[in-house]
Specification:
CATH superfamily of the largest domain: Glycogen Phosphorylase B
CATH topology of the largest domain: Rossmann fold
Order of helices and strands: EHEEHHEHEHHEHEEHEHEHEHEHEHHH
CATH architecture of the largest domain: 3-Layer(aba) Sandwich
CATH class of the largest domain: Alpha Beta
Largest sheet: 7 strands, parallel
Strand order of the largest sheet: 3-2-1-4-5-6-7
Amino acid sequence: MRICFLADGKSYHTQRWVDYFAQRGHDCHLVSLEGEIKTLASQRVLKSLCPIQALNFLLVVPQVKTILKDFCPDLLNAHFASAYGLTGALTGFRPLVVSCWGSDILISPEKSFAHKMRVKYVVKKADLLTCDGRDLSKAVEQLGAKKENIIVSPMGIDRKILEKSADRKSSKPEFVILSARKLEPVYHLETLLLAASEVKKTYQEKVKFLITGEGSQKQRLLRLSRELRIDHRVEFIGFLPRTDFLDIFKKADLYVSTSVSDSTSVALLEAMALGLIPIVTDIPGNREWVREGENGFLFPPKDFRTLAEKIIWCIRNFDRLDTIREKNLSLVREKALWENNMARIEKGFLELIEKKEHA
């Protein structure tokens, strides 16, 4: 199978996705505006024609048409419906698979009528859509997709991560709470900082907060940390290479996500696989994986006081939470292994091509 991918060239998720198909022996070509990444596929960087990225997804359509004519793929797979999905749809190439990532479906259509019409156009042009969660697939259906044209399959985690779960006991000198999301408005990291200020009232020195990632909110969050006088307890680590990223998980005890919107978060699945206790926002994407009190804890979005209460409760009862770790390991093995879930998507791609050939 010859596949042309339109996707963010700087994304780790793009690399994983493309390399899965390349390792399976398919002829893969990655096309992006962001630049080249380390991948097994051949690559082409599009020429940016405008400083406004949103317009570039429209302006590069002629370049992509030329690439498709030269490469002659069996299938075009565009990632992120409101961005490369639009580029792919405008090329007119068939069959077109659009892979939805979350905010392209859950947030972008709510920005304006024009945003919604753009995403609806892409969804209706797609021959097949992939989603990483049930909530996301329902939203795609509401935008006009047929249920039979949607594959629901979380990106999942590598099986080898399950072997890295560390033994965690409350006798350690310091508890580590980890946030592994970008510093962008949708992840609402101020909720975590306000919760950290509350936790500090109970635990002056025993608790440390680690925040990975970069983003537009970084300076604002650093200022808030200083204003709350918790900067000695909160460490902004920034972007980490993949191996270092997983090492941070092994150092942590609790995993917190303060996102106000999400589909299936790979970081959450990694935290569950590595034995961290998840405390995440009570939103549909998280409820697919976390049940309150059974295998983790939920709190209302932006409710920092409830988040603080649950962090404190987990610290006090940490040695009694082994059942949660066991349930999460079992859940990940059953539903969130990368190779199993990608095999489902690969099968969908092959069936789509076969259907085209017999049309």
